[in-house]
Amino acid sequence: MRGVSKPQLAALFATLTAWWERFRRVPMVQHWGRELAAVGAILVVLAAPFLLKPAEGSAPREYNRRLVIYTPHHEKIRYEFGRAFAKKWKDERGETLYVDWRVAGTSEIALMMRSDYAAAFERYWTESLNHPWLPEVATSFGNSKVALPKPGEKAGLTVQQSARKEFLDSAVGIGVDLFFGGGAVDYESQARAGFLVAADASGQFGLKPVMKKHPEWFQPQSIPQSLGGESYYDKEARWVGTCLSSLGICFNRDVLARLGIEKEPVQWQDLGDPRYFGQVALADPNKSGTVTKAFEQLIQQQMQQAIDERRDDPNAEGDPEKLGIEIGWERGVHLIQRISANSRYFTDNATKIPLEVSQGDAAAGMCIDFYGWTFEDMVRRPDGTSRMGYITPLGGTSMGVDPIGMLRGAPEPEVAAAFMEFVLSDAGQKLWNFSPGTAGGPVRTPLRRLPVRLDFYNAANRASMTDPHADPMETSRAFTYHPEWTNHLFGVVRYLVKVMCVDTHEDQRRAWEMLISRNFPPRATAVFEDTRLLNYQNAQELAALLQKKDKIQEARKATELSVAFRNQYRRAYQLAKDGF
């Protein structure tokens, strides 16, 4: 049990044994021994959680203020930032602050926020405004597509418009102050819904006042509004990036040597090499936004390469960008198919990928940079070498941000604003990448995250960093994310991997293994790689289908496509087996 030492457990067991020896000598106990023993066992089970509870909880016994934060961040980040900010608040304000972390994945947090805001606004709508709660209100208050009249227009409001306007004008809250960690896409969605705000009702506290107080932080040389096609902060000041991250490949050098692969992977297409069969660790994109983002960026890299090829070809006809996007999409889908065919299985959590690679259960996999670096450190040998490695595919990934934003109706807007200011300050930025034990660094373990402020990367700071050679600018220059190419197809990427790879994985792997053993006979290979059902045009139609949010139609289409690919893989297997 956490918080209870072995001597304490031994003493507890000895005491209970002595009590039992005395108790069982009582005449009534000797007569009803079995029944009383059963009752006693039940009581012990019920009392154990209280007897063996940790000596200390995460909350202080007494506190003056409480800051509630939704976050997907792991315990190391929560500990370092919670500890450092609470100390700063105590030193400056003389108050004990309790940082109350509410931990879940970003998709779960999104569901909780929508559900909680719906319940909170329903109370406000029915009790404060005395309006009936209607289905139109429930679906409109947080819907950014509900258009409101422009200032000066006198047109009457519909029920949907009234609900939307009242919500945006309100200070309805859910008892949570901040959303900290995740991806910019998640924050853009919450900001559009109206759940994230630039300032509280008074206008005194929030990110907007912080930006006004520190304009030097929000300059191109520090935190640019966008870089490499990725937004670094919201133009309406509802969220801002706090640290940087990119996607890449983690790999195990020992496993590569066992497989006879001398060259370490450096690009996404390396994971499609047949020599990696059964040795790639992947997560299900339908349960991992990280892997979906990696696949999207893989596709964009193929698009950019196809566009460049057509622009450099003097005989190429048509619009290079339009045709390049379509060709690149097809190439990207083929590469995803090969990487999937090489995978052992699809795990349900992206964090398991570097764990499996570090343990030697897989040769390589896709992961976020800081997970790759962390596991590389965990298995580092005394001589400084490590069987684990991580590489960012240059030109194949962007440098995105992990943001923070204040929620509408935050109970402690002053503390929330101070926390955001702290995270962006020199003190907060040092926590992300300074080595433990250095001045301003974390006290327990390195966080291995890259600070968002580009002005942070100077010689003085690099001397204390765990990743002194990191260069966010180089990564950003090598890859430009074009949201207009694939942003609207993000859900389609998840969908196509499900029907083409996850649901059909057994048949896909079986066919791929046979193709490898027969040295890829042309006819069988062509059948295996036939992805016309998921070409760029059909992807647009799938996007329209997913936009309707009709689960029955989605399931029906998924079944249709899964059956088609399963039959296709079985046919490819048989053709390859027969040498065709």
Structure description:
- This protein is α/β, with parallel strands linked by helices and 580 residues long.
- The chain has 24 helices and 14 strands.
- Strands 1, 2, 3, 4, 7, 13 and 14 form a seven-stranded mixed β-sheet that branches. Strands 10-9-11-8-12 form a five-stranded mixed β-sheet. Strands 5-6 form a two-stranded antiparallel ribbon.
- α11 packs across α12.
- The longest helix has 27 residues, at 551-577.
Write the layout of secondary structure elements.
Elements: H1 6-23, H2 27-31, H3 33-51, E1 65-71, H4 75-93, E2 97-103, H5 106-128, H6 135-138, H7 159-169, E3 178-180, H8 184-193, E4 196-197, H9 207-213, E5 226-227, E6 230-231, E7 240-245, E8 247-252, H10 253-259, E9 280-283, H11 289-312, H12 320-342, E10 343-347, H13 352-358, E11 364-368, H14 369-378, E12 388-391, E13 400-407, H15 413-424, H16 426-433, E14 450-451, H17 459-462, H18 472-478, H19 483-486, H20 490-502, H21 505-517, H22 522-528, H23 536-547, H24 551-577
Parallel strand pairs: 1-2, 1-3, 9-10, 9-11
Antiparallel strand pairs: 3-13, 4-13, 5-6, 7-13, 7-14, 8-11, 8-12
Helix pairs in contact: 11-12, 12-20, 12-21, 20-24, 21-24, 22-24
